[in-house]
Amino acid sequence: MTFSERRKVTHVTDYDYQQPAECAQQICILQPQEGLSMQAGPLRKGQKLVSHTLKIRPNPSTVQSNTDAFGNVVHHFEMNYPHDNLEVVSESEVEVSNFLHTGPIDDLISPSWNELVDQLRYQAGQAISDDYQFRFESKHVPVLDSLRDYGSLDFWPGRQVVHAGQALMQRIFREFNYQSGSTTIHTTVEEVMQSREGVCQDFAHVMLAVLRSLGLSARYVSGYMLTEPPPGQPKLLGADASHAWVSLWCGPDVGWVDFDPTNNQLPDTRYVTVAIGRDYADVPPMRGVVHGGGEHTLKVAVTVF
């Protein structure tokens, strides 16, 4: 059975500079991917991008776009004149579809994680699949014996990979506390493991590090999640935020399966995928270089309907 939902997302990024910036070069990854994860399998899902607009104020000197190695749409723009404010408004409408497994996930048949690790090992003369690149450590995701040991409590020999992935997601949810402002993008996985607190990107990095330390392929997913206001309360504009979760390669018959350790659930039609990468460093919503401007204040507002 297939379920589809339409989601509208508005993502506003506003920079106010203390003094005029002389010039700036920026990139942004804000356009949702299309057709992601449409492979065969009992948990397959996909997206159709209905529309996307990117409004930049003041008007940029140049705007270009390209698709990166992971299939993400990247916009580049320049401001070659003084400006004391920069506002970027991304508006998207996406149709998200899920083909849902008809029974509990515990009934889903998937290969053992040991089998997948063996399949993902390099063998001379054998073609390397695209999934292979997500096995290795990256800027924010280390591969460590201590993380492999942490994962071994859920990944015992012969256990099916989907069941083990779900168990790891549940354990991170139980053992780590969500604490806004407790970490920065420079906080390491080791520090999060020690403090047992962080935000969604930290929990995604922890789960990725454990999975890759075990020898599995797993990728970082950035996007949005629809949140509901308390009963009787109106939805507040701009109250949502960017979100991050994990996608685990579970073999050709099952495909990529998404896990959200922050909320202890498998992403469904409430989730909109913007980009995938090895970790956050591959897919920041915005980054760039500004000449001048002094100190600045940054405001980000996201609304998902």
From TrEMBL:
<dbReference type="InterPro" id="IPR002931">
    <property type="entry name" value="Transglutaminase-like"/>
</dbReference>
<feature type="domain" description="Transglutaminase-like">
    <location>
        <begin position="192"/>
        <end position="263"/>
    </location>
</feature>
<dbReference type="InterPro" id="IPR013589">
    <property type="entry name" value="Bac_transglu_N"/>
</dbReference>
<protein>
    <submittedName>
        <fullName>Transglutaminase family protein</fullName>
    </submittedName>
</protein>
<dbReference type="Pfam" id="PF08379">
    <property type="entry name" value="Bact_transglu_N"/>
</dbReference>
<dbReference type="Pfam" id="PF01841">
    <property type="entry name" value="Transglut_core"/>
</dbReference>
<dbReference type="InterPro" id="IPR038765">
    <property type="entry name" value="Papain-like_cys_pep_sf"/>
</dbReference>
